[in-house]
Design brief:
mainly alpha, 2% strand, 71% helix, ABC transporter involved in vitamin B12 uptake, BtuC, 340 residues
Length: 340
């Protein structure tokens, strides 16, 4: 069922069943409430600093890269898969852009497109291994994560391309880091790109037949196949699109840090999964939304920011995020169990 589908209640359903059906059909409700409650608590603990436009703008900038990867991860998890290589694909794409533009001397615009194509090729490799060899997504992407990381080190030589070099010869690679000053707010073009991409994916999932096929494959692949959907083609295309999005995330990463670093995506894999799961997308596939993923990314960003402003150690920031993940998955399993 699409996240925006209106659930059909039985005429004689009790209030409890109506609530359960509503939550099952609208998975973004709980994450939204968690976000609102979290914002209220941190505003009381931290004070006016928390809602200062500079701080809110900073949080949005911080979640932009993870938000991009989480959008790619959402498509995959909706099909009941998972991709542990999204962070490595992002870094490999950014390294490809930098090396092609500054080492091989290609025009920066060509290097940019080639870097996105590298991301799409990595996603296609994952898709081929999963659909044609019928290997589990977890195992495949765990293996390609190591392979892509090895390519990152080989291609970059473990060296960072500095901000000054990029600004001098390939400024377009830093374009996503350009800031728009809207009064007291500071919005980067990378954040605008993320929001625009989220809108495009939302339309695809909720207003096209292809989007309905993605939900159908995640909900029941055998039933989808019997209804005439080419499940292999849908799965392959999802990993291909996700890889291309990771390539775009590599461009946003360069704009965010101003340089091309082989160490730029340290915890990106787990952070992207965290945002998707906390945002209400089911790890069992077939249920979730792009809006929920954006809310999940904001929850992660605001919780870390609020705890940091409150003076708590990074240790407790990770502890709180871990608790949120466990609660989100536990709630999803409980909701699936009582809905059946």
């Amino acid at each position: 069922m699409s996240s925006d589908d209106t659930p059909h209640f039985s005429e004689h359903a009790g209030p409890g069943r109506r609530v359960i059906n509503f939550l099952h059909g609208n998975p973004t409700i709980i994450p939204f409430l968690v976000l609102v409650i979290g914002l209220a608590i941190f505003s009381l603990i931290v004070g006016k600093r928390f809602f200062h436009p500079f701080n809110l703008s900073l949080v949005l900038q911080q979640v932009t890269v993870i938000g991009m990867l989480a959008l790619a991860q959402t498509l995959i998890i909706l099909t009941a898969g998972i991709d542990l290589s999204v962070g490595a694909i992002m870094v490999l794409s950014s390294v490809a852009m930098g090396q092609m533009a500054l080492t091989l001397g290609l025009p920066p615009e060509i290097a940019l497109l080639a870097g996105i194509a590298v991301g799409a090729a990595c996603g296609a490799l994952n898709g081929l291994l999963i659909t044609w060899l019928r290997l589990p997504p977890f195992i495949v992407t765990l293996g390609t994560w190591s392979i892509f990381n090895a390519f990152v080190q080989f291609w970059s030589g473990g060296q960072t391309i500095r901000q000054q070099e990029i600004a001098a010869d390939a400024a377009i690679l830093q374009w996503t880091g350009t800031a728009l000053q809207l009064g007291a707010w500071r919005l980067t073009l990378g954040s605008v790109l993320m929001l625009g991409l989220a809108g495009l994916l939302w339309y695809m999932l909720n207003r096209t037949a292809y989007g309905r096929h993605i939900y159908a494959v995640g909900n029941d692949p055998e039933a989808a196949r019997l209804s005439g959907i080419s499940t292999r083609r849908v799965l392959f295309s999802v990993y291909l699109i996700a890889g291309a999005i990771c390539g775009l995330a590599g461009w946003v990463l360069i704009g965010r840090i101003g340089a091309v670093s082989p160490l730029g995506g340290g915890s990106a894999n787990l952070d992207s999964i965290t945002a998707v799961v906390i945002g209400g997308t089911s790890l069992f596939g077939g249920r979730g939304s792009i809006l929920g993923t954006l809310i999940g990314a904001l929850i992660v960003g605001f919780f870390r920011n609020g705890l940091a402003l409150a003076g708590l150690d990074v240790l407790w920031q990770e502890f709180s995020i871990g608790c949120l993940i466990i609660m989100a998955v536990g709630f999803d399993q409980w909701l699936r169990r009582i809905s059946n």
